[in-house]
Amino acid sequence: MYPQTYKYTNDHEWIDLATGRMGVTDYAQKQLGDIVFLELPEVGKTVKKGEQMGSVESVKAVSEIFAPVSGTIAEVNAGLAEKPESINLDAHGSWMVAITPADPAEAQELLDAAQYAELTK
Q: 115 by DSSP, 3-state: which?
């Protein structure tokens, strides 16, 4: 259910360490319901692991997006910001931003797919 090559946070974000792209998990989008708006950080912004860096708004609630690792925002998915409902169709294929990690060792603290699946049971 969860891509094996991604790492996951307790806050329901995923990151593909090969590309630095990250987004919210399928579990998160199901909890949120119909997503209608995204607030994403600007390219060049420095983020710290666990720090709020944006938000996802659904018809039910607004949820914060937290940085899965510390680093610099290298890319923002502007197309997703224009069509945030795409997250509801394919959460693990809908990346929000790409982060260039400051300390690759931080990723060791993230969950693998099996650990994340256990967390969301």
A: helix
